[in-house]
């Protein structure tokens, strides 16, 4: 690999690390200024996960309720910035890819008896970088498409929770489906199993693990997860995840 390619890879990895750091700092600062006494109309959420074989994902989601609070049913506007590192097989050669994505979504959130369902869609821009491989040069591409997203959260009983989400991006042809459930071990603190299935036309991935959701860290609603992963390109390994959210 040439020095130019090495510098390019180092620059991209550094950019993603800065994006993850800025996302966490931004959510932390938002949490510091959040007021729990007033119904929130705006939220910031950061989700990051890392796999033992080098893959990672991080995002920052800003959600706004233009006609009421986030606790009530109504329209939602979301802006999502994310980065994803993965591998793919190209002409029989394994290549490392890095997608950075910007989404603008509009949707509606339904709420009833402690349950909420969000359905949203909107335009998406994906910047795809594929690192050089033997006989294959580095490639860059900008793609435009549509992202559709849905998520549901509820408490079947006072001491249980259920959460599920799914989204698909036509630009990257990437899909993600996740579900988790839990039982309360303290007030609003849940522990339980989780599972996820994701992929695209080049690969797929299965995750099975556990999560601890609902504790407060630096004034933020937080969650952590840990488990095993099976990737069609990387093989088997483990993953860890972190979620931070602030409403204000």
Tags for this entry?
twelve-stranded antiparallel barrel; 12 strands; 248 residues; disordered N terminus; mainly beta
Textual characterization of the structure:
The chain is mainly β. It has one domain (3-247): monomeric porin ompg (Porin, Beta Barrel). The chain is 12% helix and 65% strand. The protein has a 12-stranded antiparallel barrel with strand order 1-2-3-4-5-6-7-8-9-10-11-12. Strand 3 and strand 4 form a beta hairpin. The longest helix has 31 residues, at 3-33. It is globular, with a radius of gyration of 19 Å.
Please report which band the strand proportion falls in: under 5%, 5-15%, 15-25%, 25-35%, 35-45% or over 45%: over 45%
Number of strands: 12
Query: What do the pLDDT scores average to?
Result: 85
Looking at the overall shape, the CATH architecture is: Beta Barrel
Question: Care to give the gist of this entry?
Answer:
This protein is mainly beta and 248 residues long.
